[in-house]
Amino acid sequence: MEPHVPIHALPEEIRKMSRDETVCKYCGVSYLILHEFKVMEEKVKAMEKEIKFCEGSIEREKGLQAELQSLYQDLEHYRADSESKTERIKNLTVELKNKQDEFKKVKEDLRYFQEEKEAAYKQSQVLRNTLEHHCSTLNKTVSLFPFIRSELDSIKEVISSNLENWAAMKEEIFLQIKTVSKEALT
């Protein structure tokens, strides 16, 4: 059945009339049946639209359910992955702490060895200065050897000369003692 479309629309004042004014008081049928029919057609079209929307909603709901299921599976996968990564992070944190402790110990050892090195360097400087002083003293002493040798030679000569003189004097004294002893005995 084709819907009948009137050539002229109802005037505005008639359309605005209340339903009580357009209905027969005896049978209850509207005088403006065509207008009532149009209103019903509009309502039917709106309901058909709503039904189509609902039918699409069911299909959309099925799609959303499938998508939700997929998202749930992804969530479970990501949760397991997250737990695995959390465990890995814990292990790496423990390993990092161990490495930091080891680094701290190595750093302390390095500081100790640097202090030892500095102490050894200071001691080597003191020994170097002492050695340089002794070398200088030795060089001065060695440079005095020729002078000392010549002095020693002259002292030897003086001693030798004095010994010869003493030996000569000793003999002379013995001779004089003998002579004095003989004279005293005689």
3D structure, described in words:
The longest helix has 153 residues, at 33-185. The protein is built from three helices and no strands. Helices cover 87% and strands 0% of the residues. With 186 residues, it is an all-alpha fold. It has one domain (12-139, 150-168). This is Leucine-, glutamate-and lysine-rich protein 1. Keywords: Coiled coil. Residues 61-116 form a coiled coil.
Brief description of this entry?
The chain has 186 residues and is an all-alpha fold. The chain has helices at residues 12-15, 19-22, 33-185.
Distance separating the two termini? 204 Å
Low-confidence stretches: none
Q: How many domains, in number, for the residues?
A: 1
| Coarse morphology | rod-shaped
SSE series: HHH
The chain-level structural class is: mainly alpha
Mean pLDDT across all residues, rounded? Answer: 86
Number of H/I helices:
3
What proportion of the residues is helical, as a percent range? Answer: over 70%
Radius of gyration: 68 Å
Biggest sheet architecture = none
Estimated share of beta-strand residues: under 5%
DSSP summary, beta strand count: 0
Task: Fill in the keyword field for this structure.
186 residues, mainly alpha, 87% helix, Leucine-, glutamate-and lysine-rich protein 1, coiled coil, LEKR1
Give the SSE layout.
Elements: H1 12-15, H2 19-22, H3 33-185
